[in-house]
Specification:
By secondary structure, this protein is mainly alpha-helical. About 75% of the residues lie in helices and about 0% in strands. It is built from 4 helices and no strands.
């Protein structure tokens, strides 16, 4: 559950607690291994749209300042989406249900 909620609290650095939990607890429980791996995959996947949104924000800020707010909106949408999915995953993990993020690149298995 903590691995899923780390992204809500730490935003772009949510992958770090998920990685630590995955590394330390993966041999203790198959359920914890799966959920920490899912959280890690999701947090690493989120880095891609965050970087794109910040690039849009900076790029528009340099070349078209009046519409640079678009990048901020993108970051906010990504952040809200990560909160919703992270809370859903944490609630499922708390109930003992294996949660799989709908939008995630499977890097860790």
């Amino acid at each position: 559950m903590i691995a899923h909620l780390s992204g809500v609290i730490l935003s772009c650095f949510g992958w770090l607690p998920a990685l630590i939990i995955y590394s330390v607890k993966r041999k203790d429980s198959p359920f914890v291994r799966h959920q920490a791996g899912e959280a890690l995959n999701f947090q690493l996947t989120l880095l891609i749209p965050y970087f794109v949104a910040w690039a849009v924000y900076i790029g528009l800020g340099v070349f078209a300042p009046p519409i640079s707010w678009i990048g901020s909106v993108l970051v906010a949408v990504i952040w809200v989406g990560s909160i919703v999915l992270g809370v859903l995953a944490a609630l499922s993990a708390n109930r003992g249900i294996r949660y799989r993020y709908p939008v995630s690149i499977r890097m860790v298995k």
